């Protein structure tokens, strides 16, 4: 990649290549600590230098001077499509790394401006159009949440926020009934995030919202475990899809642990089946360590840690304290820690991926705090400092745990 930049090569096709690579980048440590962000940065840099956001005319460059009017129109459509998809890639990166606060509004048509029967020229593909549209909704709602946060003292903020995003998402779902499973999983992930964001505001019990999160997580796992789409191959899913799948699995375990006081055998089976599928996805990418492999192995060890084998009782010393002062007890979900996680270090060069699997159950438990959308002001701005060199998962590490009381009420500020 650096050779391409050093050589000065620039083209729309190279921008598109960087865009694609950013979605399948292997988790590894480099100068910017996250390879996907760096690759996407290359794409942005070249796109801006080529000014692909602006339409061409027949005097723009010698390459296009002999192009027909129709040919220029086709090229302009591809340029506009690529420009807008870069914003979609940026959205994917911010969700994956827990940096939603840096999300920018993409130059995407209004959600009501087109439909499956009236696709815009820039989006002749049904699934592209549906994905761009749901990204537009998600971005606008995140910005709305930021604006509502400044309105202190009102007990209607949650109701206002939910009334804004939920009808739009439901209308989108009804308008695009034939989306492929990848776009569907993106949408389920958006539903989970927007529900959790709503807990940031006052509005009564959190139980109904958490129930919706659990339902969306279950739907995600069931879609993965019963994948039968004839046109899309799960083996080729992007890191963004992997993150949504893994987040749904861990969130489901957390909600079961918190409100059911244990994870049912059925949920464990669903999660383990999903982890096995991710392992297969990872093995299909034998040329590099895969984010799918990383998350699959961590989730399998996490499930195993929920039911640790019984340990023989240690003899009590005469001066035994009433308070536990030894090693960490077998973890329960969610982990009580509110700070950064203690995850295994990145893979050294030319070493096996097995090094990622040496984490203790307690370390694995620390990767799973739910996002705190319902506590102090400081928690609203998600940390941009990653706590792990591997591909982060939607705040599965680095986001503090929410302040819910025993009755399922969300603690909130303002």
Automatic annotation (TrEMBL):
GO molecular function term, any single one: DNA-binding transcription factor activity, RNA polymerase II-specific
Record bears the keyword Phosphoprotein? no
Q: Does the keyword Transferase apply?
A: no
User: What's any one GO cellular component for it?
Assistant: nucleus
UniProtKB keywords: DNA-binding, Nucleus, Transcription, Transcription regulation
Residues that span the membrane, as ranges: none
| Location in or out of the cell | Nucleus
> InterPro entries from the entry?
prtT
The protein's name is Transcription factor domain-containing protein
